[in-house]
Write a structure and sequence with these properties.
Blueprint lengths: L1 H16 L2 E4 L2 E4 L1 E3 L4 E12 L2 E10 L6 H6 L4 E7 L6 H15 L8 H12 L8 E7 L3 E6 L2 E6 L2 H12 L6 H7 L3
Antiparallel strand pairs: 1-2, 3-4, 4-5, 5-6, 6-7, 7-8, 8-9
Length: 187
Amino acid sequence: MKHLLLAALALCFFLDSNAQVSVNGVNVPTTLKTSSSSLTLNGAGVRKKAFFKVYVLGLYLPQKSKNIDEMLNANNEIAVRLEITSGVVNSDNMSEAIIEGFEKSLNGNIAPMKSQIDNFISIFSNEKIKEGDVFILDYAPNVGVKSYKNGKLLATTAGEAFKDALFNIWLGKNPVDANLKTKLLGN
């Protein structure tokens, strides 16, 4: 009986460690392993622009939460996994969309962070973007936002204020997509 129980527990661990949820045909992992920890999927949804479903975004935290202030004010690791789901997305329009997101997040006052935003946007503008590309934007305390494309580290943007501005694109009071924000909060 003990062996059967241990085998069942091992199977549950294996299944849970490889668990995924499907969002718009994209398999979103329920855990995200980073260089310093393992984060839990808080929620995931689709970013829509006009009639297009342009990407699937998953929000990862140390533990699930619906409290945005807690997520952003705690200087804890936080990450998003963004997978491009439309062929209409390219480097130019993705870069423009990110600038628009920062403008909304910062209430139009991007000047104090212009150099950081330009550095960050280079991950979208320096290489072609195609359907299926996966970006991981991982904030590590005392390091900054580490930006990966298809597993390759492209840039690190320092600063907790930058992290707040970035994640407010999706979680702020004026998000780029209110329905996506609801999904990221696990609703």
